[in-house]
Amino acid sequence: MIVQTYRIIENVATALSGLILLALAFIGILDVVAPKFGYPLSFVTELSQVGLAACIFLAMPRLQSTMSNITIDMVVEHLGPAHRDIALRVQYLLVALSLAALGYIMTQAAMASYVDGEYTPGGSRIMLWPFKACAAFGVSLASVGALTTVFRRRVEAG
């Protein structure tokens, strides 16, 4: 039941990542086209930065839970099966702890953005905290994905 709930949340995060990426593509198009008609967009740089971070971090949980992320296993490949399993579990535990710490820091930044009322510069005034909150959520969910890898029956290098 918990695994199914996690998979649903992971799918929602991945879909949201795709939607943010699609929105960023449209914003990029508007950034190129709008000045030709005399309407420069002042919010594009800031919105692209936080939007891209949210997109990347929302896609991370899928990578962690499927072990599709990039790993450097120059040492692990020379270990026997039992030692390799232990080394990979330790590796994913360290990843989970690192992502949890990053998620905590990013949650603090999102809350500060909300409290301070942080907006994009210019007349558009688009709130930035939802993007920062999505990024924090994605990193925290990726931490859970890495932690589930630690407790699998058998861990194999992706």
Characterise this structure.
The chain has four helices and no strands. It is mainly alpha-helical. It has one domain (2-150). It is elongated and about 65 Å long. The mean pLDDT is 86.
| Helical content (DSSP H or I, runs of 4+) | over 70%
Write the H/E string, N to C: HHHH
Number of strands: 0
Gross geometry: elongated
Class based on secondary structure composition and strand pairing: mainly alpha
The N- and C-terminal alpha carbons lie at a distance of 25 Å
**Radius of gyration, taken over Cα atoms and rounded to an integer in Å:** 19 Å
Q: In terms of per-residue confidence, which ranges show pLDDT below 50 for 5 or more consecutive residues?
A: none
Major beta sheet, specifics? none
Q: Averaged pLDDT, please?
A: 86
What proportion strand? under 5%
Summed up, the helix count is 4
How many individual domains? 1
